[in-house]
């Protein structure tokens, strides 16, 4: 889809009034379009790989607010009068509730010993 749009942009750019002088040189105009299309085709795989890498990097990005919420959840565990944090993890679970469940499981395992 993006590849086709890029090819259309090249064609539209060649047909703009600024490039009207190229109309006299039909072969040159056609060669410019073919060269641009060939270059886009060559770069297609590399561009796709780069975009996928960028999307993966963005998806795994941990912001400062992520760590603030972890600290807030820990401090709520020690002082329940503070507001309960509502941070949602990447899996869709509430971070505080997940941590409380983990702590309860650890306590249960200790008592079962």
Describe this structure in words.
- With 113 residues, the protein is mostly helical.
- It has helices at 2-14, 26-59, 64-78, 95-111.
- The chain starts with a helix and ends with a helix.
Summarize the structure.
Helix content is 70%, strand content 0%. The chain is built from 4 helices and no strands.
Output the keywords:
113 residues, mainly alpha, 4 helices
Task: Give the SSE layout.
Layout: H1 2-14, H2 26-59, H3 64-78, H4 95-111
Radius of gyration: 28 Å
- How many helical elements? 4
Main beta sheet strand tally, sense and closure: none
Which band does the percent of strand residues land in? under 5%
Overall pLDDT score: 78
Helicity range of the residues? 55-70%
Structural category: mainly alpha
What coarse outline follows from CA principal-axis ratios? Answer: rod-shaped
Compressed to H and E, one letter per element, the order equals: HHHH
What is the tally of beta strands? Answer: 0
Distance between the termini: 60 Å
Given as residue ranges, the uncertain stretches (5+ residues, pLDDT < 50) are none
